[in-house]
Amino acid sequence: MTSESQRTTLAIEGRTEVARRNFLQKLAGAVVGGLLVPAVIGEVARAAPVAQPQPAEPLAEIPAVPAPSAGENPIVRMMEDLQRALKKPVEQRRWTMVVDLRKCLGCQGCTIACITENKLPPGIAYRPVITETTGTFPNVSRNFVPRPCMQCENPPCVGVCPVKATYRRPDGIVAVNYDQCIGCRYCITACPYSARSFDSGFFYHDLAGGVAQPYEALPSPEYKQARVRVQGDSPVGNARKCHFCIHRTEAGELPACVLSCFGKATYFGDRNDDRSLVAQLLSRANATRLKEELGTKPNVYYLA
Amino acid sequence: MNENEISRRDFLKIGGLTAGALAGVASGTVTFRTLESAEAARLAAAAPQVKYTADVMCPAECGLAVRVDNGIASAIYGNPYCPMNAGAVCAKGASGLQMVYNPNRIKYPMIRVGERGEGKFKRVSWDEAIGYVADKLTAIKKKYGPESVIMDAGDITDRDTYWRLFFAFGTPHCTEHGSICDTPRRHGPRIMLGGKRIEPDIMRPLLVRQPDGSLKNDYTYKTRLIIYAGWNPFTATRIPYESRGTVEAKLAGAKIIVVDPALSNTASKADQWIPIRPGTDADLFAAMLRYILEQDNQNDPFRRYIDWSFEEYSQGWDDFLAAFKSWWDKKDPVNNLNYFSLEWAAQRTDISADKIAELAHTFGITKPAALIWGMNGTGHHYNGYLPSIIGTALNIITGNFDVPGGAIDTELTKSDKGGSSTGKQFLTRKVKRVVNGKEVEGEQDKLHMDYFGDWPSAWDDVVGDYPRRFMEGVTLQQGPFRGHRYPIKGYILRTGNSVITGSNTQEWVKALTMKEGNDYKVELVVYVDTPLLESGLYADVILPEASYLERMSLSDIYPSHPLIYLRDFVIDKQHESKTPYEIMQLLAKALIDRGDADVKAADFTEKYKKEEDFWDEALAGAPGKPNSGLVRPYPQYPEGYKILGTPESLEAGRVKVDAEKKEIKGEPVTVKWLRENHGIAVWPMSYYRYKGGGILKTGSKKVEFVFKAYDKYNKLIDESGSVPPALKELGWDRYPKSFYWFETKWNPYTNPAYAKYKDEFPFQVITGRIHHAMSGTQSVDWLGRIRSEDLWYPLNDDVTVDEVLVGSDGPKATGRKLRIPKGTWSVGVVQMNASDAARLKLNTGDLIELETPYGTKTRGKVNAVQTIRPGTLRIAFGGGGRFSPGLGWTYYFKDITPDANMLTDPRTLSPIMGQPGYCDILVKVKKV
Known about the structure:
The complex is a heterodimer of chains A (304) and B (928).
Chain A: H1 2-7, H2 17-30, E1 68-70, H3 74-85, E2 95-100, H4 109-118, E3 129-136, E4 139-146, H5 156-160, E5 166-168, E6 174-176, H6 186-190, E7 196-198, H7 204-207, E8 239-241, H8 246-249, H9 256-260, E9 266-270, H10 277-282, E10 287-288, E11 300-303
Parallel strand pairs in A: 2-11
Antiparallel strand pairs in A: 2-9, 3-4, 5-6, 7-8, 10-11
Chain B: H1 8-18, E1 26-27, H2 37-45, E2 49-54, E3 63-69, E4 72-78, H3 91-94, H4 97-100, E5 110-112, E6 121-123, H5 126-144, E7 149-152, H6 160-169, E8 174-175, H7 178-181, H8 183-193, E9 198-200, E10 206-209, E11 215-218, E12 225-229, H9 241-251, E13 255-259, H10 265-268, E14 272-274, H11 281-295, E15 314-315, H12 317-325, H13 342-349, H14 353-365, E16 369-373, H15 375-379, H16 385-397, E17 407-409, H17 410-413, E18 430-435, E19 438-443, H18 450-454, H19 466-472, E20 474-475, E21 485-486, E22 490-494, H20 498-501, H21 505-513, E23 515-516, E24 519-520, E25 524-529, E26 541-544, E27 553-554, E28 563-567, H22 580-593, H23 611-619, E29 623-626, E30 642-644, H24 647-652, E31 656-658, E32 663-665, H25 671-675, E33 680-682, E34 703-704, H26 711-720, H27 725-730, E35 763-768, H28 781-784, E36 792-793, E37 799-807, E38 810-820, E39 827-828, E40 830-833, H29 834-839, E41 847-851, E42 857-865, E43 872-876, H30 889-892, H31 900-903, E44 921-927
Parallel strand pairs in B: 7-8, 7-22, 12-13, 12-16, 13-14, 15-34, 22-25, 25-26, 30-32, 35-43, 40-42
Antiparallel strand pairs in B: 1-38, 2-3, 3-4, 5-6, 5-26, 9-17, 10-11, 18-19, 20-21, 23-24, 27-28, 28-33, 29-30, 31-32, 35-44, 36-39, 37-38, 40-43, 41-42, 41-44
Helix pairs in contact in B: 5-22, 6-22, 8-16, 11-13, 11-14, 11-16, 13-14, 19-21
């Protein structure tokens, strides 16, 4: 396997083939039995690191759908909530997600929409939907629980990070500084919700075809960093997680999962704003959080 | 950093890889496309665009807003302006990128070099491929007549260009999947209302005319009860608004009841799940109707089931009632009980009499309500016409038809489209044939092998009976060409996969590979599609069609009020694919060049200068609905007149009102107008649209309880004296005047002729729809990673396989090896009740063989669960035995996944529409 890999000539920005080979030899030595290694790890040069100026970007347009005669359009309502929140200083926002489990259809559109939005690699889903089936025929029930990152007020993942690569933003979002992350994966173990994944460096074309697909070469908008994912560079080798699509929300767009939700079961907004839809939903008696007993204080609520 | 060293950070990353046994990895020599950093920077800088279009990952055809980064489709979202999906997408909709950019796509035109089925092709130019097809078509037409050619536009609805060309070519045989989809399910609404699909009033928002004349969106739900029988809208999302609508309506106070042998996802959100015995929906509905008729008391507010106002807009109820009641005193030989009584239905459906009574009462008393029946429950049973007819009657007599919160026939409320672009006008051309030595003249459509052959009432064509006609040829039995014989020599299949979905797989293979001398009996098989599915392996010519993000056409949808949207060019065409329009024009030109007498430049190459021209013609008839109902969509215009034109022009009064034609004609909807309006046109909602005839499309413009729709078929029989074989099978010599009843086949619990199979073949097999991964979309990696109900499940073995990819010369090994670890890839499985599994000493993951009484078999892995009734097995339609490498990873599991259509009885086609009995299957089970 290794020799196959060594035969492949690669000229990648800033690296020689020698370094590449060493890298692969080390890798091969660390491989557990039975696991085949990707023939070549990484063929796509990443974009030159882009400095991240933060121009005052115009906020997304709220869809100009006809005015409601009765009821409301949840997308319009939440976008209005969102854009109101963006006018406040960042530390006064408390981004919160509410999932109405009674409306989750188990379609898993959120899972895939998140993957495409954030350009996630094989093996990583920030927001899987967990299916639970209980009971005995004919008294059977099936429930669906979407599981994003809980964006805890007391996040167990932050304290264990030896290099302070994961941190809590003033608006409550738990973020990862990919350039800081050493990939030790302590945070993955620490998270009681299994909401963190490790980017092991696989690409979809490793699994089919061997030729990079156009969508794989697009930069991920995560953290507004426009990183093209390549082998040997962040976020490959980093811990990765849901961040409530802050690159979208700060532009006035709803998170990918919220916009896509086929059952209109997922809501998003600023809990600190009494007028927001999420604040109103949280006042319901049926609002709960996962593993409340751990004291993590999630910012994801479920209506059951 | 020294390049020969590895930093701590790199080291840890490497360590991470060892744990990365996530899915499967490849080894071997591969080539990579590298991205220059300049290009990468340009990509990063390019501002994303949003393009509005229509999905076809599934037939729901949601409105989409696709983000395009520098020419690459980068994320797929719902179009927030589209009321069908209101900005949402499901997993399948979101995953279109892996379909469009799939490495297994057909990239170039190819011509077969091996035998049919071997999958050996060579890449050719478009000129060569089109030339080959045109030469063959010309020769077939000359020798056998154009009626020897079938244009089967398969599963995807934007078929207009192909139909136009082949109708012009001279064949009456242009079809699509509707004929193998669920024709019995549509039957009741069709003959009684002129419609097709009754759906609950849960599309939100509705665009409603306000008292002040303005148009506003109503987001509220009025429905109090929805009963879904054999219908699983959450996973079979033909009607996308039924997903969110059902759960929203429930939260707004509606009761949801699901009647289904398996706990579908829809059932999992219902107030009540009734696990009925397969194939007995008609029995349940008949007992409900009898209960409502017998127990109705107009003086008791708790028993006032019937809303007699239906008599104002219907005719023939007394005849229907008399025919229905004529069964009440008869004893069923199966159980010696009176037909349609509660006890009778309880015996047959395995639902207690109390529960049936409660269901009937609940439906009768709760208003507004909707009784909805689906594809699997009714469409796939031999007698599926019966629940469709009785269900329609139940919705009508309880006063739920087209009322707020009730049941809407969405075939009657959707926007018109197509018009003259589909080329149906060519069907009325006069043609001459020599029949029994005599020259006869008639219209082109009178040559139709079904309508004037064995299936006069099968208005959606009988694709399930094609293999027989491929092998035996056609003899017309009705009409002017009665006695005319012709073979089927050309089969053009576009975006369909009849080998897997068009009735029994083996029959299709036999028909497509049968030889006559040295040649194949069917001389020309053409396959036009984006992915290479099984049927393509039997083609002589393969044409790569542009994917849905690369072509233009119109949505095909079932909304509560008229709306239409554009399928638009989102990205450039990939590889060498061409759009359906381009293929039509190329083939038209090739036929014209060969002197075809019927295909004329004036109808093709000279008529349309660009793709938009064609679709503008198709849009000319939109929305085409009457200005009827309450509140009238356009109160300022005359009632009942046909509405045409853009919502904008109708609103602004830029219209011509034509009293003679009874038309209100605004500015025509065009591609350009749609592009300027988020890709979509929406016209207002109203209810009670049957008043004054309104949207009803029956001959009498009333709801018809006497089936006048059958009159024309009886007339044909009167003239010819030839009774269609399927009618004879029922012991009928004419189509019935009103209510009728007959038993399904292959059901030992309802048909005494099949009771003998009960012990040896103890399982009824039904098919379900795995929404995430129907047919070609099984090649999508993202969808293989998730599971669906208990039908699409990661029960794969640990395998290391030689990778096969569809290359320029067809499927070919790449030299790479792929390892697919156990339990990481969802495959089609056999859903079985855990108690049945325990009795047979089977565990989840065991490979079993299913065998029918007629000896057909398939294999699959058991999924032993609590979510299906004992004695019933469910397998996914199209979910297994997939032997085309174009399916990606699914292909590697072809030997452990079940193909439902290996089991389908090729001789059991339902009698009126010829639909295969996909859910009328008995099997015994053997561990492998």
